[in-house]
Amino acid sequence: MIFDVLTLFPGMFDSPLQESILARAIKQGLLEVRTHNLRDWAEGKHQTTDDTPYGGGDGMVMKPEPIARAIAELKQQAPSAKVLLMSPQGVPFKQQHARELSREPGLIFLCGRYEGFDERVRQTLVDVEFSIGDFVLTGGELPAMVMIDAISRNLPGVLGSSGSAETDSFVDGLLEYPQYTRPAVFDGMQVPEILLSGNHGKIAEWRREQQLFRTLQRRPELLDNVQLSDQDSVVLERLRKETEIAKTIR
């Protein structure tokens, strides 16, 4: 899979792409990240990519012409690549989007700066706008890195274990269950006995219950959109009652 990134600061991507899982996946040829400086498509001696806003106001606005030229050139190489705009006004980026986008042959990330883009960029050049949260960053580079990482994890062969991505938080709509490793006792805290039992059926039941409990505790709104089995529903109802009783005792 090929990720093309349009940015004014391509150097920001050097370090993240040289470490850990992404670096290994790139070395193995499982994915490619190509960063492009938007100034390469700007005209004039100073390769200007921004200008003052019509109507007045603070800051600078990114011009549409260099962006249009850049996207047109990249589309010649990958006509079906989707153009994604990093924007605090965009659709909240979620795990389901990461999985869906991992099936695309290629993606073009458009990273903004300053006061954002000329509105005509949104109207004519972009397929989807994405936000990684309700806050404002200096530019779109960090959100693009986050999305590339999340999408890449869903590509075949990128993770060391084929099942690793399937147990991540949000994959099935729930938070992940607690994880433990050696030592069995740390600072007086014991690993749950069930995990030492070797009974894989009981361990699977415990982990599912822990997923439900952790989601109920930390992100209860997620439960409204999860398809639960009959057994899940029974366990969840019991957990809700136990939680209410615990609150009453306190």
Q: Which bin fits the share of residues in helices?
A: 25-40%
- Low-pLDDT runs: none
CATH class of the largest domain: Alpha Beta
Which architecture of the largest domain per CATH?
3-Layer(aba) Sandwich
CATH superfamily of the largest domain: SPOUT methyltransferase, trefoil knot domain
Strand order of the largest sheet: 2-1-6-5-7
Note the beta-strand portion.
15-25%
- In total, the number of domains comes to 2
Based on Cα principal axes, name the global outline. Answer: elongated
CATH topology of the largest domain: Alpha/beta knot
Major beta sheet, specifics? 5 strands, parallel
Distance between the termini: 53 Å
Radius of gyration: 23 Å
Q: Tally of extended strands?
A: 9
Class inferred from helices and paired strands: alpha/beta
Mean pLDDT: 93
- Number of helical segments with 4 or more residues: 7
What's the order of the H and E elements?
EHEEEHEHEHEHEEHH
Comma- or semicolon-separated keywords:
250 residues; Alpha/beta knot; Trp Operon Repressor, Chain A; elongated; alpha/beta; 34% helix; two-stranded antiparallel ribbon; five-stranded parallel sheet
